[in-house]
Design brief:
This protein has 192 residues and is α+β, with helices and mostly antiparallel strands. The chain has five helices and ten strands, in the order βαββαβββααβαβββ. It has helices spanning 17-26, 56-64, 115-125, 128-131, 151-156; strands at 4-11, 31-39, 48-50, 68-75, 78-87, 90-98, 134-144, 159-166, 180-184, 187-190. β2 and β3 (48-50) form a beta hairpin. The radius of gyration is 16 Å and the shape is globular. It starts with a strand and ends with a strand. The relative contact order is 0.17.
């Protein structure tokens, strides 16, 4: 059984899924959505199945009603899952991609093999279409993170994060991200 690489993205408004799919396809990957479901809560009460052609606007309405959305699909013969959730005014998009076909990504460090993947994802997160919406994103294998507006607390209570990508609104210091170093504007990597 392979691990999952996770991208947990916190934004001010929901990411346009059509835009995201088009970026994935522009990068040369075949991406398709197989299933969209929503639930009332984390106990998975009131599960509803939705058409795969659902628009971002319709998903936003479901999130505003407090529903949690799960989307399953395939990117170039590799399973992926998205979980969309809204808490207060913060939208969370959690992306999981199985590393089965990309075993080199099953790593808790950024090295010469994993860096191109993380750099590509970071570039997308900092695209003009995203950057003003992005609050923070945590990247790594089997990442656990719960949003906190305090960057120090966010980092302290997170696990398996090898890269943080911050939106332009966040003020970051070395003290806030102990154990990480800034490698580019808005990008901090785990020190190994």
């Amino acid at each position: 059984m392979s691990a999952n690489i996770n991208l947990i993205i916190f934004t001010k408004k929901m990411i346009d899924l059509n835009w995201l799919l088009s970026i994935i396809q522009q990068k040369g990957f075949n991406a398709s959505i197989n299933e969209i479901e929503s639930v009332e809560n984390w106990d998975f009460d009131d599960m509803q199945i939705h058409f795969c052609e659902i628009e971002t606007k319709e998903i936003t309405v479901l999130l505003e009603k407090g529903r949690i959305i799960t989307i399953n699909g395939i990117i170039s013969n590799n399973n992926f899952a998205l979980i969309l959730n809204k808490t207060g005014n913060i939208y969370e998009t959690s992306v999981s991609l199985a590393t089965k076909n990309y075993s080199y990504l099953d790593s808790d460090t950024i090295d010469e093999f994993t860096r191109p993947f993380y750099d590509e994802v970071s570039e997308v997160l900092l695209f003009s279409e995203m950057v003003n919406n992005l609050i923070v994103s945590a990247l790594g294998v089997e990442v656990i993170v719960e949003y906190n507006d305090d960057v120090h607390e966010l980092c302290l209570n997170s696990h398996n994060v090898v890269r943080w990508v911050f939106g332009f609104d966040k003020k970051i210091s070395n003290h806030s991200l102990k154990g990480y170093r800034q490698v580019a504007p808005h990008i901090w990597d785990k020190v190994t």
